[in-house]
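ok new one. same drill as before - structure tokens go in, u give me an amino acid for every spot. 823 of them this time. try not to just spam alanines like last time pls lmao
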């Protein structure tokens, strides 16, 4: 063994990193069906539009690769390039009007309450800032004529996007990746015949052509020496907020053979054997209130950092970093003949021809997107991750915190990517700044609050008008994700660090909750159920003066079900966190007493779980949000075993909402049916999502626009079908679809810091390996009888009344569960 180890190290050291950076002939693998259909997205035509391009990213720098043979476009982003600059939306003195708003709500005068909230408690500006497109790298290959054998792909095993085609008897290949270690994007072009690569390239800025509220931004394109291009500019003013971000983007070409030169703003390459382009970019952003960095120095440092490195060494370093994350988890589901088809064809036909492995591909693509858009030191992944080609993107490509940002991070722990949660944790720390000011000025409360949206500048006041602005539990919902990070890692140092954030949210709601004058329950007021117009008596369209538009009705209420469920989880998680750290014992008692007074969950006359305190109907049929079911997933208020009395009402609610609407909505419903232990229903909804609500590379759609929330959420939903651990019990194969009769799931994480390798055959559990990360008691349930061993020795289990078992573990030890078959 020692000889083999030394020999492998010798090969690695003296091959220039070839073992890590070896070239893989993806087109040959596609033609021979020798690739892994759960790890390769491929298509046989270039992207006709931006939303069908292939993404690469390192958390900070993103690119969308179109893959056209003759006229290639690579659209580029940097995660801190937004409109505006540091600003505040806090409006002082709103709390003076809060009692009037509450009184109007309790008296059923909802239109007046919503109007008063809009006039006196909205943040200013009412809207927020926008994520911006940085640049486009555009190539023209004049000699490219007829093309045959075209393929483009994203290899999830390497995170590299590729293009291959034949033209004029020459095979051309391109590969693109975004390196986290070196903070650059690399574009490599090769050809099968020396001297065959010639093109002209431009690095082009992007200007908004649609929105009249923008002041003039600027950018300047120029050549740089004889082998580079540079683009400099600043962010736009928006809504009276001065654009204070400066950026610099540079392109550097390293040819092999041939000639490269700059002609004005054109990079010209003639008759090269191969060429590598390196793209680096930065802004002057330091944090949400500091823009004192030097973007030129930053870009210079990035390029100087790779100046002495070969392409192979840069690629090897990139691959080592990427694979350290991606290779932790592997999911295998049944492969069918359709699994080898181009990805767009797989998506279109999966509802007719079973292709279970498509779900495995979607699972891994979600992990890839999370790795590519959220890394330590970067910003949190926004609505589009880090990929946006529009200066006026849908929903501003912000952080929408009434489902979308939360869904982006649903899989981060179970998918064994805990490090990728760091940007979300950082966002939560930062938003408490203005969040505490809004708590004081709007509501006269301690702690901090955040509503349904924020942006790069961490504003926290209600925004977009009172129809959306009365959702006060967006930050509390995210606090529950902070607690999950502790549950999955057992990291007490982290918990001490984040404890003030969770406690600050608890402080706010301890002050904000008020007594319902009729029922004497504690409720939130004002409140709303995200984006849903209440079925309150007489609710009808009216003119919202804050936004200057007609809205379908009022949303304001007291004690929406989602509010009560989020706060129930928040108070429960806080009490557990304080107990773990041995802090605030008296306050725990007060918090638990308050939790017991919260408005209970109610079942309406139509058999659904009530969305509001009152038993109101729905103005909109099959509304896309399923907010009253937060407590089933991702929350922990309901479960099949612990709250059976609510399960029929939850199913009735889901059936009334339907299986359709937007991508993220279908994904949420997939996860909810998984929590209800109905794998076939979950699988059916997921198939509809693949067919109707994804682009060809598996990015999710929302009203036709690209968003990553569904992409992330489907990864989490697939996990819920195979493993659940939300109530401290590891539930094995709880919602296994009939079609997924055989499979393996290796490296999945659960609460209590366990890592599992699961195998099943004929829809029954076969074996499980359990790695104990923190030495906690393992509490698990499986439908089959099984035995547990460690190093071949049987482990004694304690059997509980509900059919589950538990046993002690030692940190770092591996335990094997084997199903016992009769006969």
């Amino acid at each position: 063994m020692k000889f083999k180890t030394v020999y492998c190290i010798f090969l690695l050291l003296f091959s220039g990193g070839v073992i890590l950076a070896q070239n893989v002939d993806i087109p040959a693998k596609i033609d021979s069906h020798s690739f892994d259909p759960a790890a390769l997205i491929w298509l046989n035509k270039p992207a006709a539009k931006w939303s069908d391009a292939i993404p690469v990213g390192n958390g900070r720098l993103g690119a969308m690769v179109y893959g056209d043979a003759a006229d290639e476009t690579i659209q580029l982003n940097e995660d801190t390039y937004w409109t505006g600059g540091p600003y505040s939306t806090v409006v002082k003195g709103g709390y003076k009007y809060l009692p009037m708003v509450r009184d109007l709500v309790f008296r059923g005068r909802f239109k007046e309450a919503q109007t008063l909230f809009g006039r006196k408690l909205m943040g200013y500006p009412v809207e927020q800032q926008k994520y911006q497109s940085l640049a486009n790298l555009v190539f023209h290959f004049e000699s490219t004529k007829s093309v045959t054998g075209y393929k483009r792909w994203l290899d999830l095993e390497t995170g590299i996007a590729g293009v291959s085609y034949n033209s004029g008897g020459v095979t051309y290949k391109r590969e693109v990746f975004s390196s986290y270690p070196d903070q650059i994007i690399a574009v490599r072009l090769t050809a099968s015949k020396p001297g065959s690569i010639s093109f002209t390239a431009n690095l082009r800025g992007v200007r908004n052509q649609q929105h009249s509220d923008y002041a003039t931004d600027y950018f300047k394109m120029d050549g740089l020496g004889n082998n580079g291009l540079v683009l400099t500019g600043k962010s736009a003013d928006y809504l009276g907020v001065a654009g204070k971000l400066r950026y610099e983007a540079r392109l550097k070409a390293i040819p092999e053979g041939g000639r490269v030169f700059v002609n004005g703003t054109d990079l010209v390459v003639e008759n090269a054997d191969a060429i590598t382009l390196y793209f680096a970019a930065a802004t002057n952003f330091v944090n949400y209130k500091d823009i004192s960095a030097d973007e030129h120095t930053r870009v210079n440092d990035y390029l100087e950092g790779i100046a002495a490195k070969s392409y192979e060494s840069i690629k090897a370093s990139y691959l080592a970093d990427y694979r350290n994350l991606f290779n932790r988890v592997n999911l295998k589901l049944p492969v069918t003949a359709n699994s080898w088809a181009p990805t767009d064809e797989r998506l279109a036909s999966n509802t007719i021809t079973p292709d279970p492995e498509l779900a495995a591909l979607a699972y891994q693509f979600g992990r890839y997107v999370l790795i590519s858009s959220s890394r330590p030191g970067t910003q949190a992944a926004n609505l589009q991750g880090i990929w946006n080609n529009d200066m006026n993107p849908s929903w501003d490509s912000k952080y929408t915190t009434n489902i979308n940002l939360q869904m982006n991070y649903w899989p981060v722990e179970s998918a064994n990517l805990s490090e990728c949660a760091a940007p979300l944790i950082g966002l939560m720390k930062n938003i408490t700044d203005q969040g505490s000011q809004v708590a004081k000025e709007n509501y006269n409360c301690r702690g901090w609050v955040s509503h349904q949206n924020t942006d790069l500048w961490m504003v926290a006041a209600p925004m977009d008008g009172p129809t959306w602005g009365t959702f006060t539990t967006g930050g509390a919902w995210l606090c529950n994700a902070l607690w999950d990070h502790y549950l999955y890692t057992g990291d007490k140092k982290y918990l001490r660090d984040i404890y003030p954030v969770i406690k600050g949210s608890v402080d706010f709601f301890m002050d904000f909750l008020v007594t319902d004058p009729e029922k004497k329950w504690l409720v939130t007021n004002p409140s709303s159920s995200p984006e849903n117009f209440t079925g309150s008596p007489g609710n009808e369209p009216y003119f919202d003066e804050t936004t200057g538009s007609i809205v379908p009705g009022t949303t304001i209420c007291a004690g929406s079900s989602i509010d009560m469920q989020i706060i129930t989880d928040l108070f429960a998680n806080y009490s557990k966190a304080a107990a773990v750290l041995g802090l605030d014992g008296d306050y725990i008692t007060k918090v638990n007493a308050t939790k017991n007074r919260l408005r209970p969950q109610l079942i309406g006359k139509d058999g659904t779980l009530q969305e509001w305190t009152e038993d109101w109907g729905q103005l909109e049929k099959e509304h896309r949000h399923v907010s009253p079911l937060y407590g089933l997933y991702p929350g922990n208020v309901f479960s099949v075993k612990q709250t059976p009395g609510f399960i029929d009402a939850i199913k009735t609610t889901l059936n009334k909402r339907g299986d359709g609407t937007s991508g993220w909505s279908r994904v949420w419903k997939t996860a909810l049916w998984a929590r209800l232990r109905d794998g076939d229903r979950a699988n059916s909804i997921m198939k509809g999502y693949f067919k109707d609500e994804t682009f060809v590379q598996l990015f999710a759609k929302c009203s036709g626009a690209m968003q990553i929330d569904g992409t992330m959420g489907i990864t989490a939903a697939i996990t819920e079908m195979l493993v659940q651990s939300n109530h401290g019990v590891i539930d094995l194969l709880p919602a296994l679809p009939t079609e997924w009769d055989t499979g393996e799931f290796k490296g999945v994480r659960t609460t209590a810091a366990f890592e599992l390798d699961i195998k099943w055959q004929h829809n029954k559990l076969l074996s499980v390996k359990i790695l104990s990360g923190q030495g906690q008691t393992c509490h698990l349930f499986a439908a089959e009888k099984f035995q547990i061993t460690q190093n071949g020795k049987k482990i004694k289990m304690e059997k509980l009344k509900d059919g589950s078992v538990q046993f002690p573990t030692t940190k770092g030890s591996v335990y094997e569960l084997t199903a016992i078959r009769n006969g």
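The longest helix spans residues 422-443. and btw The domain at 94-123+398-724 is CATH 1.50.10.10 (Glycosyltransferase).
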